[in-house]
């Protein structure tokens, strides 16, 4: 069956589909999600099957307000309330101990659940109207770059889900920051996002999990199941180059050929001698554009893409984290 593309005015149709146990593509301020009733095991299984997602990779549960978190968790530490005051609603997910209202299918077999309060008005409305906790992973095929427009979702999910609500382009463009609570005054960043380490440091201490910027050794256990899977990869082979612009140009020149491209910063393109796309001039723009560009490289059948490495500070850490996974941890330092 063909998937429907709904305008936001048709939100009521999406609400009925969610209440009826179906999966709907939904806009959020980070990326598009594949939403279904988090408390309905069969609905959640449909999400895993549409994405081709491994069953042990848990889904984030989206609520309208942090005060609803008590319904789905067994314990909420004081620090979680402090963080929620500051960062909810927004691109921020906290891993908390779950209770029986969240089935193990949703939590990938874990005894914890990621709770997020999205700020996108359409998503917020959808949660309120459906009166359900909404489980939603990013709406891409497992392993592929996340979708930042309804058209991206249609491309990956047409025929596999019931409908996509078109809420325009995603504002941030990378997925939420995921943290676990380490102790009374410390969180661990499991996945960096637009709520940055620097922002969280204004509330408490922060540990950045080692897997955020490097690959796991084969004998290491992942703090978050998502860390161990291949991620964000387009069909093209992505290679990060950490160097100044002149060395980058020289390197690309020495490795140039058919279907080879560069992904460079805005401002690099003057006299740039090879095929390229740009992805913004600062970390916020790079976050907003990265997944769209990775998908565009596939549209033009790029086979190899050399990427200017972003600054890993602030929101840049999220961009760096997505790119290094897209590149299979291949970074060339010159
Ligand atoms: O911005 C976002 O977070 C988007 C939108 C749709 O809300 N959702 C999203 O979900 O990115 P997903 O499933 O693509 O990524 C969630 C990540 C995965 O890497 C997963 O392993 C991790 O969060 N995660 C979820 N629940 C967890 C838990 N209980 N413990 C540890 N990691 C968890
Ligand atoms: Mg994802």
What key phrases describe this protein's structure?
334 residues; DHBP synthase; Rossmann fold; five-stranded parallel beta sheet; 16 strands; binds threonylcarbamoyladenylate; binds magnesium ion
Protein topology:
Elements: E1 4-7, H1 11-19, E2 24-26, E3 33-37, H2 41-51, E4 60-62, H3 78-87, E5 92-97, E6 112-116, H4 121-130, E7 134-135, H5 150-157, E8 163-166, E9 177-183, E10 186-191, H6 197-200, E11 205-208, E12 237-242, H7 245-254, E13 260-264, E14 276-278, H8 283-299, E15 304-308, H9 316-326, E16 331-333
Parallel strand pairs: 1-8, 2-8, 4-6, 5-9, 10-11, 12-15, 12-16, 13-14, 13-15
Antiparallel strand pairs: 2-3, 3-7, 4-7, 5-6, 9-10
| Mean pLDDT metric | 95
Q: Please state how the strands of the largest beta sheet are arranged side by side.
A: 1-8-2-3-7-4-6-5-9-10-11
Percent of residues in β-strands: 15-25%
Small ligands present:
threonylcarbamoyladenylate, magnesium ion
Describe the structure.
- The relative contact order is 0.15.
- With 334 residues, the chain is an alpha/beta fold.
- The strands form 2 sheets. It has an 11-stranded mixed β-sheet with strand order 1-8-2-3-7-4-6-5-9-10-11, sandwiched between helices.
- It has 2 domains: 2-212, DHBP synthase, CATH 3.90.870; 237-333, Threonylcarbamoyl-AMP synthase, C-terminal domain (Rossmann fold, 3-Layer(aba) Sandwich).
- The chain has helices at residues 11-19, 41-51, 78-87, 121-130, 150-157, 197-200, 245-254, 283-299, 316-326, and strands at 4-7, 24-26, 33-37, 60-62, 92-97, 112-116, 134-135, 163-166, 177-183, 186-191, 205-208, 237-242, 260-264, 276-278, 304-308, 331-333.
- Helix 1 (11-19) crosses helix 4.
- Helix content is 27%, strand content 21%.
- The chain is built from 9 helices and 16 strands.
- A hairpin with a 2-residue loop joins strand 9 and strand 10.
- The chain starts with a strand and ends with a strand.
- Bound molecules: threonylcarbamoyladenylate and magnesium ion.
- Magnesium ion is lined by residues 137-138, 146, 175.
């Amino acid at each position: 069956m063909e998937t429907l593309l709904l305008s936001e005015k048709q939100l009521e149709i999406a609400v009925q589909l969610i209440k009826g146990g179906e999966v709907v593509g939904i806009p959020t301020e980070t990326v598009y999600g594949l939403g279904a009733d988090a408390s309905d095991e069969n609905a959640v299984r449909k999400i895993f099957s549409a994405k081709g997602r491994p069953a042990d990779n848990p889904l984030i549960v989206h609520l309208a307000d942090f005060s609803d978190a008590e319904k789905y968790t067994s314990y909420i530490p004081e620090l979680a309330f402090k963080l929620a005051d500051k960062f909810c609603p927004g691109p921020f997910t906290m891993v908390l101990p779950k209770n029986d209202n969240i089935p193990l299918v949703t939590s990938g077999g874990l005894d914890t659940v990621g709770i997020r309060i999205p700020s996108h008005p359409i998503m917020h409305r959808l949660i309120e109207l459906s009166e359900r906790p909404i489980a939603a992973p990013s709406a891409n095929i497992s392993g592929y770059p996340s979708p930042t427009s309804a058209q991206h979702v249609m491309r990956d999910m047409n025929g596999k889900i019931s409908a996509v609500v078109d809420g325009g382009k995603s504002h941030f463009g990378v997925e939420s920051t995921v943290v676990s609570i380490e102790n009374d005054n410390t969180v661990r960043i499991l996945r960096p996002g637009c709520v940055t380490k620097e922002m969280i440091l204004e509330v408490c201490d922060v540990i950045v999990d080692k897997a955020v910027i490097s690959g796991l050794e084969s004998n290491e256990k992942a703090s978050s199941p998502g860390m161990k899977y291949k991620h964000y990869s387009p069909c093209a082979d992505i290679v990060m180059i950490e160097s100044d612009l002149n060395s980058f140009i020289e390197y690309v020149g020495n490795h140039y050929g058919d279907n080879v491209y560069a992904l460079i910063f805005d401002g690099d393109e003057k006299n740039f001698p090879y095929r390229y796309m740009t992805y913004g001039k600062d970390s916020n723009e790079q976050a907003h554009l990265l997944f769209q560009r990775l998908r565009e490289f596939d549209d033009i059948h790029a086979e190899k893409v050399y990427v200017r490495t972003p600054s890993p500070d602030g929101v840049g850490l999220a961009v760096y984290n997505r790119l290094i996974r897209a590149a299979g941890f291949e970074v060339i330092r010159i």
